[in-house]
Amino acid sequence: MDFTLTDEQQAIQESARRFALDRLKPFYRAREQARAIEREIAREMGRLGFLGIELPERFGGLGTDCVTSGLLIEQLAYGDFNVAYLNLLVSLCGHIIAHHAAPEVTAEWLAPIVAGEKFVAIALTEPHAGSDAARLRLKAERSGHEYVLSGEKASISFATQADVAVVFARTGREDEGAKGISAFLVPMDAAGISRTVGDDLGTRAIGRGSIFFDGVRIPSGYLLGAEGRGFAQVMQGFDYSRALIGLQCLAAARASLDETWPYAAERRAFGKPLSDFQGVSFPLAEAETHYQAARWQCLRTLWLKDQGQPHTAEAAMCKWWAPKLAGEIIQQCLLTHGHGGYGSDYPFEQRFRDVLGLQIGDGTAQIMKMVIARQMTPG
Ligand SMILES: Cc1cc2nc3c(=O)[nH]c(=O)nc-3n(C[C@H](O)[C@H](O)[C@H](O)COP(=O)(O)OP(=O)(O)OC[C@H]3O[C@@H](n4cnc5c(N)ncnc54)[C@H](O)[C@@H]3O)c2cc1C
């Protein structure tokens, strides 16, 4: 076992760290208030090679391994958890587009997505079907050289900011379940699309909302992969995004711990620094222990992916554990800051609200445990 990072990985980490501290961290709260990610920040990230870094160079990426993509997202999320959603979605959707879109569709869309010019969303969930996504109803009917999409997607990150979305729709019968589902790339300015955004507890810079499809016509060439294969395609992608989500959440916990240790050493109570009290320092020491274990779990999962080895159960472990743990660590850091931690002068309350969403998004803990149990049960 060799945990050493390559020179290239260290260089990417360092430049992402500088960018996160200079360009992301100071504006974390402002982005929440603006309820948007600045387009210029995304373009800067594109120019720096920070989006879809693991995609082959012909698609605008740098062709790195997935571990490097994980190291990158954790640096960016350290600065701003919400901006790191761009990494997550470009990596998840970028892979689907790169592997399954027609060459002319890839040429038109993937380069601007990786360049940070266009925002991409993934639209799977519907009002009646989240965990049980194979029951989705949004219809895509073939009409000559087009498909006509009708229905509703709900709970979609970047619902109103996205320029294009990977949309899952039913091309087969409802009783076919997952087999009747196909994936499409749908430009969000297509006629018949309307969008709304909700008022969430956190991740307000992203905006989670609904996309309505009212007879939306798209060229048949915008089908991604084979008809009826859409569900299998997205499930493979989730094994990757789940490890990235783990690192994204843990980075918010890391930033909170890095701010809390010096605070505990400086702040005094009963004539001593807070850190002299084991009641203060032991919960932080436990947090460090759990943080390390979860982080290595995520990186190892990405390493398994890079080696072409199965990693479905490992990815599900990252997804249920890391967001929950991150929330607990951030809460502990908030409490260590006393009354100040509860207010908006410190970033803990925002981080706490933001990471909570990813205990649900991309699959809940119960669903992840079902995935793990299915993988571990013999037969
Ligand atoms: C912050 C955030 C971002 C999101 N972004 C996106 C996005 O970009 N694109 C997208 O398509 N979707 C997105 N979602 C939706 C998300 O994927 C779904 O909310 C999630 O899969 C759960 O589905 P549901 O909300 O319908 O809950 P339900 O499926 O109705 O489940 C409700 C509760 O019951 C539990 N439950 C359900 N079935 C079982 C079972 N068999 N055993 C035990 N417990 C069970 C669940 O764990 C959950 O606690 C996002 C959600 C959030 C909160």
| Largest β-sheet summary | 4 strands, mixed
Number of helices: 12
Helix and strand content put the structural class at alpha+beta
Radius of gyration: 21 Å
Spatial strand sequence of the major β-sheet = 1-4-5-8
Shape: globular
Bound molecule types? flavin-adenine dinucleotide
Task: Measure the end-to-end span.
Answer: 31 Å
Summarize the structure.
This protein has helices at 7-24, 28-34, 39-47, 66-79, 84-100, 103-114, 230-266, 278-306, 312-336, 338-341, 348-356, 365-376, and strands at 120-123, 139-143, 146-157, 164-170, 181-187, 193-197, 208-219, 223-224, 268-269, 272-273. The chain is of the alpha+beta class and 379 residues long.
Question: How would you describe this protein?
Answer:
This protein is globular. 51% of the residues lie in helices and 15% in strands. By secondary structure, the chain is an alpha+beta fold. The protein has twelve helices and ten strands. The longest helix has 37 residues, at 230-266. The strands form three sheets. A four-stranded mixed beta sheet has the order 1-4-5-8, with helices on one face. It has a four-stranded antiparallel beta sheet with strand order 2-3-7-6, with no helix packed on it. α4 packs across α7 and α8 packs antiparallel against α9. The structure holds flavin-adenine dinucleotide. Flavin-adenine dinucleotide binds at residues 121-125, 130-132, 155-157, 203, 208, 357, 360-364, 366-367.
Question: In terms of topology, how is this protein built?
Answer:
Elements: H1 7-24, H2 28-34, H3 39-47, H4 66-79, H5 84-100, H6 103-114, E1 120-123, E2 139-143, E3 146-157, E4 164-170, E5 181-187, E6 193-197, E7 208-219, E8 223-224, H7 230-266, E9 268-269, E10 272-273, H8 278-306, H9 312-336, H10 338-341, H11 348-356, H12 365-376
Parallel strand pairs: 1-4
Antiparallel strand pairs: 2-3, 3-7, 4-5, 5-8, 6-7, 9-10
The structure holds flavin-adenine dinucleotide.
